[in-house]
Amino acid sequence: MPSDDKRWRIVETRMRRLGSRPDALIEVLHSAQEAFGFLDDDALRFVSDSLRVPPSKVFGVATFYHHFTLKPHGEHTCVVCTGTACYINGADEILSSIKAGLDVKPRETTADGKLSLLTARCLGACSLAPVATVDGAVEGRVSSSDLVAKLAGL
Amino acid sequence: MTTVHTFRINGSDVAGTDGQSILAVATENGIDIPTMCHLDGLSDTGSCRLCVVEVAGSSKLTPACTTLVSEGMDVSTTSEQLCGYRRTIIEMLFLERNHICAVCVANNHCDLQNLAEELKLDHFELPVIAPKVGIDASHALFAIDHNRCIMCVRCVRVCDEVEGAHTWDVMGSGIGVRVVTDMGTPWGESTSCTSCGKCVQVCPTGALFEKGRSIGEGSKERRPFLPYLKNQAQEPELT
Amino acid sequence: MSESAPSAPPAPPKRPRRAADGLRPLEGPARASAYVCEAVSCLSAQSHDILLKLGEQVSGAGLKDVEVKRVGCLLLCASGPLVQIPGTGQLFSNVRPDDLDAIVEALADVTPGEQRAPEAPFFSRQRRIATENSGRIDPESLDDYVEKGGFEALRSVLTSMTPAQVREEITRSGLRGRGGAGYPTGLKWNTVAKAVGSPKYVICNADEGDPGAFMDRSVLESDPYRVIEGMAIAAYAVGASEGYVYCRAEYPLAVSRLRKAIHSAGRAGYLGLHILDSKLGFEVDVRLGAGAFVCGEETALIASVQGGRGTPTTRPPYPAVAGLWDQPTLINNVETFANIAPIIRKGGAWFAGIGTSTSKGTKVFALAGRVVNTGLIEVQMGTTLREIVFDIGGGIVDGRAFKAVQTGGPSGGCIPAEFLDMGVDYESLVGVGSFMGSGGMIVMDETSCMVDVARYFMDFCREESCGKCAPCRVGTTQLWILLDRISHGGATLDDLAQMERLGAMVQRTSLCGLGQGAPNPIFSTLRYFRDEYLAHIVDRVCPAGVCAIEPAPVPV
């Protein structure tokens, strides 16, 4: 294990449960990201060694899927849904207001490390469009000014 | 027991055995189908789409490299439409990254260039994409210029299937895909690379090249001599 | 399968009827019930608090025979939190803590034994088969599912039908794949059953990637056992022993309910070895997607389940013959599996009696966009768009004019007002240049610019392209560049012609459905709204006022 950090144990247990087979790669990356918030080099190398998957393949898989992130997020995360219903109801405007108000673009973190802005292809809560989540809590029918105010106050 | 299938390519009767691809039978019979990602001796991915052919009775185009022959099929490998599509694919590959032949190490030794000539692609109409992508020259013997890469992934396959090192793989998705070594780390730091140079030999363009070669000197002259790869032009010959 | 004697499945534990988590158990049968929706939309509107508070108030009012129950989706997702009293058919929407007194009062007046459905057209025009239990059962309670007839179909299949008879029944029903293309389900099952190889696999495709579609999420959140039952019946019919549900990681609630359901179904003997004392052994596991739209494509999904990059491979071989680990693999969508149990219970002929000549049964749509009642609807195949948008959907918000309805996600198209009276089925949608897709239905009004809509979908395809084949990887980006040029007023008519040529080429030469379908939004908007394109190019105006047209260069 890369360090004494107890979270490695969680990842290892999950790996064992899945029989440490190469095809468990995505599941294991999920649990590593859940434990650490992101996938750093240590995590990828650990997974690569333990599952006996070539490092380039681990890296290829981790960068293929949008869900995985190789950089740590800020203290708070806001995900703005850009699904069709949200697009029709003004998701673009929300993103541009956040950009104007907080100077952060999608897939970026504010300079002070407080807030990471992400977009999602569809959160499946289309009835509440436009939708955003703030630290995992779904906010329906958001107005851009309210959301910017909320994010600024975090 | 091998089953032999008789079928037609461009109106002439041909025969192929069970498990042979349309491309293999066409090549045996001297019928040329343009290919890019295909290389004899490596697995086929059907990804460059250059070898798409028409099969009577199907509205869809099918890649000749991954489609197996079957009894009575009627294949057509050339039509004005197919040639147009192939020309567009080559044009796309040129515009996707930066391919300026005049300053390329593989000038006159390039499969992309050859195909452009063969398909009479003499100008570009589609939008240019060409983002700035880097060069990795950290390896002692070789270098990769991603600007010349067309994502045929021959290098990935030869490294995994023939050399068994699996140093190369593909990262990212969509237009952002790149071939990478190990953890996206510099090639020279790779712990899995055996410096065998097979990736360089199979590269169809000037993306992977031997260091120290200048413009137009990047021929892949050792490709036919890699005993594991059967090159269709020259039979393997061990020196 | 092991040779040991079948062990009796452990009897489902008999627990006292409990109201909901955190609430007191009910003594005796319930005279009246209040159903509180706990699917994602309502939960985000704090419906769990409402559930707890309602329980307290019901106790406080001394209503000992009133049950307060957590249920799955109550369909009218935009108006959550939703509380329904099935005894009277009353539906309380946008419930705030202050409204609870009125609900308690209404509960006090319920006549025992009576059940009424809500009368509003949003509900009365629907026909519920795949979602019949949604909003009626506690999605986390196996007992509740079994009480509503759950696993009866599986039991009858295992005790009185051969696998061939099951497949025949499914074939007779005329059920077609609900994931998009509408491939006949019976035919697929037969192919897998006949394919040589062991083990065989059953995969449930719950990678609902179409933006604007949430049917699968709702089904999994509201009635996960039904999907498991459908998969088990399929496993019996095709001879499979292992199954996977490939679910989007973006749906944490669906995943957790599904995992719980698999666990408790296993403990109760509905999964595992010797299911219900039969010879059928079938295990199900969940595999999480990781945010790649292309993984909805069967071969890409298989690559992803195998732990690799979700890039599609050329077909044939089809997954039915050589799929997961090169073994015969049956892949069906969540909604398809949700239709299996009712078909077995009521017969294929019953199902075939619903819908149109080519498309049988019902279809679940996620109705969203600029329509009054947004939410989940299930209607008979052949229901007209007008009924869906204006009767069920309640028309356009703010009384604006209807412009188009978009179906089929990024491979679909926009259907203009002239086809409002068209009955919706697989063929009719293709006929007007769209596509059934998984069932997202987005209503657009005059504030939407169709060029921008096409650009939006191309942006989606460009980002979701896996990057494997050249036409899709490069072509979608180039199409997007051309659309962007048009929407900014910088394009010429040559660009338009080139876009059409390029689109046709990408459609014909791409490796998988993503690339082949990507140009569809362009073609369908060009077919019905060409004048809008011309307005952008020739007159340099955006009629809907959406696009920011850049000022024309001034000649010096």
Give the arrangement of secondary structure elements.
The complex is a heterotrimer of chains A (about 150), B (about 240) and C (about 550).
Chain A: H1 7-17, H2 25-36, H3 41-51, H4 55-64, E1 76-81, H5 84-88, H6 91-102, E2 108-109, E3 115-120, E4 132-134, E5 137-139, H7 144-152
Parallel strand pairs in A: 1-3
Antiparallel strand pairs in A: 1-4, 2-3, 4-5
Helix pairs in contact in A: 1-2, 2-3, 3-4, 6-7
Chain B: E1 4-9, E2 12-17, H1 22-28, E3 52-55, E4 61-63, E5 74-76, H2 80-96, H3 111-118, E6 135-136, E7 142-145, H4 154-163, E8 168-171, E9 178-181, H5 198-202, E10 208-210
Parallel strand pairs in B: 1-5
Antiparallel strand pairs in B: 1-2, 3-4, 3-5, 6-7, 7-10, 8-9
Chain C: E1 32-37, H1 40-44, H2 47-60, E2 66-71, E3 83-85, E4 90-92, H3 100-108, H4 121-124, H5 142-147, H6 152-160, H7 163-173, H8 185-194, E5 201-206, H9 215-222, H10 224-238, E6 242-247, H11 252-267, E7 283-288, H12 298-305, E8 329-333, H13 334-346, H14 348-352, E9 362-369, E10 375-380, H15 385-392, E11 402-407, E12 413-416, H16 426-431, E13 440-445, H17 450-464, H18 470-487, H19 493-509, H20 513-517, H21 520-539
Parallel strand pairs in C: 1-2, 5-6, 5-8, 6-7, 9-13
Antiparallel strand pairs in C: 1-3, 3-4, 9-10, 11-12, 11-13
Helix pairs in contact in C: 2-3, 6-10, 6-13, 7-8, 7-10, 9-11, 10-13, 17-18, 17-21, 18-19, 19-21
Structural account:
The complex is a heterotrimer of chains A (154), B (239) and C (556). With 154 residues, chain A is α+β, with helices and mostly antiparallel strands. Chain A contains seven helices and five strands. The model of chain A has no long low-confidence stretch (mean pLDDT 92). The two termini of chain B are 35 Å apart. Chain B has helices at residues 22-28, 80-96, 111-118, 154-163, 198-202; strands at 4-9, 12-17, 52-55, 61-63, 74-76, 135-136, 142-145, 168-171, 178-181, 208-210. The longest helix of chain B has 17 residues, at 80-96. Chain C has four domains: 32-119, Glutaredoxin; 142-352, NADH-ubiquinone oxidoreductase 51kDa subunit (Rossmann fold), CATH 3.40.50.11540; 362-445, Ubiquitin-like (UB roll); 450-539, Up-down Bundle (de novo design (two linked rop proteins)). Chain C has helices at residues 40-44, 47-60, 100-108, 121-124, 142-147, 152-160, 163-173, 185-194, 215-222, 224-238, 252-267, 298-305, 334-346, 348-352, 385-392, 426-431, 450-464, 470-487, 493-509, 513-517, 520-539; strands spanning 32-37, 66-71, 83-85, 90-92, 201-206, 242-247, 283-288, 329-333, 362-369, 375-380, 402-407, 413-416, 440-445. Chains in contact: A-B, A-C, B-C. At the A-C interface, α2, α4, α5 and β5 of A face α1, β9, β13 and α17 of C.
